[in-house]
Design a protein that fits this description.
Elements lengths: L3 E7 L13 H20 L2 E7 L2 H18 L6 H26 L6 E3 L3 E3 L12 E7 L1 H10 L5 E3 L5 E5 L6 E2 L2 H9 L3 E3 L6 E6 L2 E4 L6 H11 L4 E5 L6 E2 L7 E2 L2 E3 H9 L8 H13 L4 E5 L4 H5 L5 E4 L1
Helix pairs in contact: 1-3, 2-3, 6-8, 7-8
Bound molecules: phosphoric acid mono(formamide)ester (CP).
Amino acid sequence: MDKKLAVIAIGGNSLITDKDHQTVEDQYQAICTTAKHIVDLIEEGYSVVVTHGNGPQVGFILRRSEIAHETAGMHSVPLVSCGADTQGAIGYQIQQAMDNEFKSRGMDKSAVTIVTQVEVDKEDQAFANPSKPIGTFYSEEQMETIRKEHPDWNMVSDAGRGYRRVVPSPRPQSIVEREAINTLIDAGFNVIAVGGGGIPVVREENGFTGIDAVIDKDFATSLLAADLKADLLIISTGVPQVALNFNTPEEKRLLNVSLDEMKKYMDEGHFAPGSMLPKVQAVVSFLEKGGKEAIITDPEHIKAAVAGETGTHITI
Ligand SMILES: NC(=O)OP(=O)(O)O
């Protein structure tokens, strides 16, 4: 492949702009906006692999199935299947939005979604320590009811935005459909893969089996980018740049940082767990596996960031 390859991660929360815009159609509108920024990059000459989160969406699907089970006796749906559902539903929207954007710009390109399984270790300590927030944000008042009605739920306070249910989030070990993704890129497709961090599977004697968990999409994206030997990893998030002393009077935004500097800032505790920390860890892992450059920015600044004007650029 002659073109430069960029792997871009989109957060599941970024597809739900606020609590009044949570419908499937609202999500499609948010994806159409993000698709424009991604197609800008393709217009600049990049081939692109898009990955996406699913934290809110997988929680909504799981809860919907639980309510149908509790109130109407419908069969319940395992968490791993809920994750697979999000790959199809979100992948379909990204694929359609990108294809429509290509058409509107007269570009002879297309996007394709690949259902992606990601191998995890069934002995991963994460299965005993749920940490991945999914679904709805609950207020302190709602928590009183939840503690009574769902004493088995594991809950955390999520970045000051409310309380959320958490599920196991094992580290991704390998991407099962890696060769298929590579083949599609070589054939000229822009690929949507490892949606929701990938469908978690464990290796058994007779093949793979799904396991209930939600993989962090930033870690899965980092692994995929390293496997594909991508020229650029872009982690899109809610802010245009990473900052030291975030949200304090000493806040300092970062533009160009070396891998060693980023590791030092990480060790100094500048990045919040469950928020910027996993994104920085994902970037560090990509660069330590041979990647040359990663950018952390928000979707609307992708083009300007790739031009070097903004975003946080981390290089070896
Ligand atoms: N799976 C995952 O990491 O999703 P979010 O990015 O939505 O949290």
